[in-house]
Input
Amino acid sequence: MPNCLQQNQDRAYWRKCTLSRTRGGRQLSLRPELTAPIIRFYLSDLSNYPMPLKLFCISNCFRYEEPQSGRYREFYQYDVEIIGSEAPESDAELLLLAGDLCRRLGLTEVRFRIGHVGIVRSLLDALGMGKAEQSQFLHLVDKKKMEEAARFLGERKVTAEKSAEIIGLCRLKGDSSALDGIKGTAADYLREVLAIAEGAGTVGMQVDLGVVRGLDYYTGLVFEIDAPELGAEKQVCGGGSYALSQLFGGRPVPSTGMAFGFDRLLLAMERAGNAPAEEGIDAFVLTPSATLRQEMVRIAGKLRSSGIRTEFDLMRRNMSKSLKYASSRGATLAVIVGDKEAANGLVTIRDMQSGEQFTVSAERVCEEARERLPKPKV
Ligand code: HAM
Output
C-alpha cells in the first residue's frame, strides 16, 4: 500500500490492512480491497483515456478478521469501477449491473440498502464539525452504535433537538418516499438515482440513510446488498461514489464503484438451491481409427473455436473405453470420427444421455452439436 495513504492517516483503511515486515524490516501490507489499487493504476496508466472509464477485476483480498462462516482472512472480490462521471446515471448503472448479476445468479431475494453520506455530512458541516470528527461519528453509525453516536454529538454541545434530527436521519429507512421532505443536493441526487434504477426495473431497493460504509473515502451515494439466505454475514456487495485520486497525488476525479464478495455469492447461490453446476464438458471427440487421430484433433479444434467446451481422446483408448471416459467427464455429446463416415466427410454425434446417434457433415459439426446442447440460461 502506498505511503500517501499512510501520510493521510486514513485510519479506517489501515484498520482493514494486514501488515507485516520483510526480513529487511520494510513494512508491507496485503491489499484489503481493490478500489485503491485500481485508482493508482488509473493515475499511472489510464488517465489519458476518454471518460468514463469502466474497469473491473476479480482478485484476492486480505483482512485481519475473526474467521467464521462467510468471513475470511483471504477472500475474493469482483470489483467494478466507473471513473470520470459525476452524473446520477453512473451510480444507477452500478445498481442495474448489480441487480442483473443477482438475477442471473438466481438470487431473487436480495435487498439493496441505499443511502447518501452527503445528507448527514451536510448537517454536520452546518454545525461546523470538521471532516475527521464527522468520520468518527459516521463510523459509530456504520457499526449501528446509535446511542454512542448520540452521546458523541452531545459531548460536542450539539443541541438535543439537532442531535435527534441527525440520529433520526441515520435511522431513516423505507421506499423512496422516505426521502420526502428532505432538502438539499444530496437528497435530490439520491432521489434521481433511485428513479432511474427503478424505472429500468431494478427491484428490492430500499432507502437506508444508516448505510454510511466503513471506508472513509466515500463521498456520495453508498449502498450495500444483502442476500438474506446468508444469515449473519449476509452482505454480498458494497459500494458507492468516492474521492481517492487526490490521496495518490492525482487531480480529483469523480468515481463510483462496487465490489461483490465472490465467496459469499457462491454461498448464497448454494443456500438458494442454485449452486453452480459441476464443471462438465459439452463434447468429447474420439476415433476408433489410428489413421484418423489428426482429423479427431481438427474436429475438436473447430468445436472449441466455436465456444463448445470440448476434449478429445489423449489415451488412444478403444471406442467403448473412450465412451465410458466421456460419460465419467459428464460430456453431453460424443463426437465419433469413424472410418466410413470420414471417407464421406461425415462424423457421428452421440447423445450421451439417450444413446441416440446422428450422422452429420463434418464441416457443420459445430452447428449440429450446438443444436443438441442445452440452451444457455440467461
Ligand atoms: P466492502 O463492503 O468492504 O467494500 O467489501 C465488498 C464485499 O466484499 C462485501 O460486501 C463482502 O461481500 C465481501 N467481503 C468483505 N470482507 C470479507 C471477508 N472478510 N470475507 C468474505 N467476504 C468479504 C469494498 O471493499 C469497496 N472497495 C467496494 C467499492 C468498490 N467501493 C467503491 N468501489
Remarks:
- Residues 33, 35, 63, 65, 71-72, 75, 77, 79, 81, 235-240, 242, 257-259, 261, 263-264 surround histidyl-adenosine monophosphate (CB under 6 Å).
